[in-house]
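Table S7 (text form). Paired inputs.
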Amino acid sequence: MECGGQVSEADMLPQRLPTAKKKNCVRCGKAAVLVVQTSAAFCRECFLNYFTHKFRSGLGKTRVVQPGERVLLAFSGGPSSAALLDMVKRGMEEGTQKKRLRIEPGVVFIDEGCIIQGFDVDQRQQALQIVSKIAEDSGFPVYRVMLEDFMSEHSTEADLPVTVSNCAETSQDTTEDVERQVKTLSTDDSSADRLKRLFEQAKSLTAKEDLLQMLRSKLLVKVARMHGYTKVMVGDSGTRLSVRIMADIAQGRGSALPLNTGFADDRHGDVVIVRPMRDFIAKEISMYNTICQLESVFLPTLSTRAAEKASIGHLTEAFISGLQVNFPSTVSTVFRTGAKLCVSQDPENMPEGHERCAMCKAPLDTGQQGPLQSSVYKTSGASEDDNKCVATGPEPSPSLCHGCSLTVADFGDFSALSDQLLHD
């Protein structure tokens, strides 16, 4: 467990790879060296083939990514995105032309250090250098963008400041680019200050994490549009998505689950977010990274020093990981149940005019309220006056979904992001 009691994805991984004593590989019959599930033991070679086939079959079955398409890989430095980067690199180096992954990839890293308390400029510079080196070792173009750039007055696709480096650049050039990028972020930077003040307005960590998720997604889409990419691959694992399924339901985002956790998220239109790592649990990714000796780096998040019950997402993560220890099928059960959900195609259930939330771009779920829906808004804080129940919660905005309405209400004054976020 990281400092402050944070439960990160790395905490869900075993401290050491489980050995397969007196077991044979389920595929070739040789002595097994690791166990994926209770009864699935593999030798090293068969596990790598299993992992690769699982990744490629996920892309092949959906046919979301077409040959020759420009695909942007979202790299956070964590275990899952490191495995994603390696899978794409290996796929493009496949010896057989028929099996080769034929795409034009790029890598993007979003520096979120601005909103992390105690993460100073020197630490950000060091983290950027490590992440940049790992990303550039892939040989793909690398794009680095700061989270606070979303708050700039001219944060359009044409003006969004992005540092670009290619495999042809020397490591010295990369270091100079990183230092130059970080040094521009002084404490007097208006965009950084505006973003910090915005997050400080939030009453709960849940709202901060919710906003960060939306800002991150919108920046990924902006960078993709700037450089002509039509797909964005993210490293969300099945373990991470299982947590999000439970957390989204608790936060009133159940109607957006097919988009938030599905293989392809097409809410942004011209840029589709793809999750090719969703069929892997964190344990499998840990084994793959260990065998292939892949480097990853831990970066602090909003919940790094937070208590277990600090946010809905943080508490859900601790709950799922705790169950997974004694019940290894917990993650797969939650994930596969959530994967069965899909967007309704019934015209009667579709929102009028197919309207979408102005903030998260998911289909609106705040139509005409029924008796049950109208009692949802903070009834725990209701008071009685002349035998009448008076709700103290805010009325939902007609242009926001239920989940985003709760997030906006938690921030209070949301005008700082109205132009960039609500009308993006």
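Next pair, protein 2 of 2.
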Amino acid sequence: MDAICATMIPIAKPVMRSAEIDSVADGCSRAGNGGWLELRSMVAKTVPNRSDIPAMPDLFPSTHDRAALLDVQRIVASHACAEDRFNELNGIKTIAGVSQAFVCDKIISGIITLDYRTLEEKERTYAIETEDFPYIPTFLAFREGKAIISAYGRLPPDERPDLLMFDRCGINHPRFAGLATHIGVLLDIPTIGVTKSILCGTYRHPAPANVGDSRPLVYANREVGWVLKSREGCNPIIVAPGHRVSVNTAIEIVRHCLRGYRLPEPTRQAHIYANAVKRMYGAKNHTWQR
């Protein structure tokens, strides 16, 4: 239902010029790992000092050794904050949705920033990175994180949002280190994860029946999120804090962002945008893989 409705929503700004697609894709491909490290260093300068995480440079290790990746997730989980800690004294003024699309060996990350009160668009950007990590459930941050950080780095400093909302897990993760938590800890910004299915945890049945109703999601004797009925006739969605947001505030923010669709506006619009970039990129390169 969401996909059908999404095709009826016009994109307010041109997605991009064809030449811009080539420029971004070529630049990302040439950058390689060295370019990624340089970009990450640049983005890190825009956030508070992360001296509290001595291993921060290794939050995206070059090795794909499982033990090393698990160590990283333990670091992420140990530094994740499930309390409300927003930069703005008056709370959240802007919120951004983040979503990825895939074509050939490329990962496209789209970010759309909205005014939190009105949910009107303020800014949008994207990045295209070469996929260098396989799809492995519970390790998505290592696959998609590079493109997300690249896209975030392209946002004007004065347009960076107060909170990022991802269509991925937060602390509702086997090691409490989903993608929303991983990126939140790396950038030290508030994040929320919203998904369509439960990765881990259970809730008390029956499922929420009325729009707006919810049930706590519990994993390892810890409340890690909510099962939320967001639209009539659709299965519930899963809402979880990522970093610097409490469990209770996470669901209130998502409720505020619902506009009659199953998914909240930030991630719904980011999904539309990322797939529009994918179509343009695929048409330019005569490929329609994935």
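The CA atoms of residues 193 and 244 lie 12 Å apart.
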